[in-house]
Amino acid sequence: QVQLVESGGGLVQGGGSLRLSCAASRSIFRMGWYRQAPGKQREFVAAISSGGSTSYADSVKGRFTISRDNAKNTVYLQMNSLKPEDTAVYYCNAGPTRGLGPYWGQGTQVTVSS
After folding, report:
1. d(Cα 90, Cα 51) in Å, to the nearest integer?
2. Residue 36: what pLDDT?
3. Are the C-beta atoms of residues 38 and 111 closer than 8 Å to each other?
4. Can you give the C-alpha Rg of the chain in angstroms?
5. pLDDT band with cut points at 50, 70 and 90 for residue 62
6. pLDDT band (50, 70, 90) for residue 85
7. Dihedral pair phi/psi, residue 112, rounded to 5°
8. For the chain, where are the E strands, in sequence order?
9. Which residues contact 71 (CB under 8 A, 6 or more apart)?
């Protein structure tokens, strides 16, 4: 089992920045972020492997940056140029292989005002 603890959400004006963090209870290959807006399905945002390979949803490319500190088992999501459509609950996800992992954090709310 892997426990994931997220932090860093909040309310920000459009064009602003936030950084999310997710700490895992142990080392794990892939860590990523998904988000779910009201009335919508959960969608992929970004992911990173333990070797540093990254992937992003087209909607966040150039604005969001995912990184990780393997010594701390922590992944970060730096979100810049935020838009109201980025408003959602952001969930950390982790797994031992590529693709969607079996472990989820509790979610952190990000609200972007116009």
Report:
1. 23
2. 98
3. no
4. 13
5. very high
6. very high
7. -115, 120
8. 4-7, 10-13, 18-24, 30-36, 43-49, 54-56, 64-69, 74-79, 88-95, 103-104, 108-113
9. none
